[in-house]
Amino acid sequence: MNISNIGFNSYVNLVNKFPLSFGMATKSDNKLERTPSTDKFELREVDLKRKKLSQADMQKIASDLEYVKEEELLNEELLYFLQPKKDAKGRISFTPSQALVIGMATNKIKHFKKLANTLHSEAVKYGEDCANQMKEVFGGDKGLGKYVEYRAKDSESIYNKLVKEYKDNKVNSEMMDIVSRKAFKLPIDELDKEDKALLKIAVMDGDISFDSRDYRKIADILKHSRKDHLESINYIKDLVGTRLVLPVGDQKELALVEKYLTKAITNGDLQVTRVSNYHANHILPYISHDVAKYWKQIVPGLRVVETKEVRKKNGYTTTQINVVHKVKTKNGTKDVLGEFQIRTKELNYIGNVEHLIYDILQNKNISKNIPELKEYYDKIGIEKDVKEVFNDPKKEQAYFNYEKAMYYWVRNNETQKDTDRKYPKPRLYEYGLGEYWNTLSFDSLMRIDKTASAIKKKYKESNKMENK
C-alpha cells in the first residue's frame, strides 16, 4: 500500500475503525502470556479511494497530534516531522503520510492505556498470593515474614513504564536510526553524545527531510503485533511489589535474611531472575557481595547487578530482586512478574518521602487532582524549589551529596554499635542549601508527607460521604 496515495478516509478507517487485524492470533508458549487467544494484533491493510482532506479532517489530525505530544510517546525530533504546514489564511494541512503516523501513534497510546488497566487488575487479583509466598520464604509470622508488605502497581505507573520502555527500545533506537542514517549514514547507536546533539540541531533547523518511505518505516515500527504485545508485557518486571521492611537492619538481622533467601533459592521455592544491590560505594548493601555471587553460581541465567548501574548519585540504598511468582488459577498455575525489595524501617521512610522530588522532576501530577493538596503544595513552594535546585548543576550536586550523606547516616546507625555512632546527622545548610530547608531537608519532607497524607485521607473520606 502506497501511503502517499491515501486520503483522510483511509486514515480514519486505518487507525480508528480497523486498528487491529481480524485474524485469530496463534497460541503462544510464553508462560507470561496474559492475553486470550482471540486478541487481534496486526494492522489491517484496506483499499480505499483517495479523497481530499477537509479542514475538519485536518483539525482531527491536529488534535491527535496534540494528544501524542501530551503523552510524550515520541521524542522532539520525530514530532518535528509531524508538524502541519500553515497557509496565508492560517489553515493547517497534513500530508497523508503524516496523518498515518499520527493516527498509529495515537492508537499505540490507547493500547498502552488499555494494557495498563488490564495489568493493574491482574496485579490486584494476584498481589496477596505473591505476598503470601514471600512471607512463607521468610518463615511466616513466626519469622521475618511478618515484616513483608506488598502493593499492586497502579495503572498510571504501569502506563508510564510502558511508554518509557517503548521510547528506549523503539523510538530512540529504531525510529531515530532512520533519522541518523539520513544525516550521518550511520546507525544511531554508533553516534556519540556530541553527534546526537548535532543530529537534533539538524532536525530542528529543517536540514533533514522525510519522504513517504521514511514515514512508512516509522508506521511499520508503530504497527502492533503479538510480538510487540508480549514485549510490552515483559517491560513490567514489578507488576506486584513486595518489600521486607526490617525493624533493625543490623548484621545479625541481615544474616538471617540471607539465610532465608538462600534456602528458598536453593530449594527452588523462589525463582529469581535478577538481583540489584543499590547503594553508594561507601554505604553497606543489604545483601553481601559474596552471597549474591553464590546465588549467581547456583541459578542459571541469574543476573547480579553490582556495577555503576546501581551506584545512585543520591546514595539510594535497597536490594531489589526480580521474582517470578507462581500463582494458582482455575486452569492450573500462572507466572506473575514481581519485584522484591529489602529496606529497613527508617530508610524505607526516607525513600518514600524522597519520592516526591522524583515525581516533580518527572512532571507528574503530585496533587492528584485534589484542590486542597494543590493549594498546600503551591503555598509551600515545593515544586518551585525542586526545579530551582535541579536546574542548577551546582545546587543539584550539592543536594545529591546531602542525600548521600543521609543514606550513609541511617545505614551507619543501623550497622554500628551504639558506642560507635559518631557520624552526625547531615544538615541541609552544611551543603550550601539552607534557603531550601523548609521544603527540601528530610525533616521538612517528612513533615510535608504527613500533611499531604492527612489531606488525601480527608479528601477520600469526604468523597465517600458525598457518594452515599
The profile of the biggest β sheet is: 6 strands, mixed
- Derived from helix and strand composition plus strand pairing, the structural class reads alpha/beta
**What share of residues is helical?**
40-55%
- The strand order across the widest sheet is 3-4-8-7-5-6
Following the backbone from N to C, one meets helices and strands in this order, namely HHHEEHEHHHHEHEHEEEHHHHHH
> Quick one: how many beta strands?
8
Measured between the Cα atoms of the first and last residue, the distance is 56 Å
Helix count?
16
Strand content: 5-15%
> Radius of gyration, rounded?
26 Å
Average pLDDT, to the nearest integer?
Answer: 84
**Low-pLDDT residue intervals, each spanning 5 or more residues:** 1-50
Globally, the shape reads: globular
Q: What do these coordinates show?
A:
This protein has 468 residues and is an alpha/beta fold. Among the domains are: 164 residues, no CATH class; 111 residues, no CATH class. The chain is 54% helix and 11% strand. The protein is built from 16 helices and eight strands. It has a six-stranded mixed beta sheet with strand order 3-4-8-7-5-6. The chain is globular. The N terminus is likely disordered.
Question: What's the layout of helices and strands?
Answer:
Elements: H1 8-17, H2 55-71, H3 76-80, E1 85-86, E2 92-93, H4 96-137, E3 148-152, H5 155-184, H6 193-204, H7 212-222, H8 226-233, E4 240-246, H9 251-267, E5 271-278, H10 289-298, E6 303-305, E7 318-329, E8 332-344, H11 345-361, H12 371-380, H13 382-390, H14 393-415, H15 437-440, H16 442-467
Parallel strand pairs: 4-8, 5-6
Antiparallel strand pairs: 1-2, 3-4, 5-7, 7-8
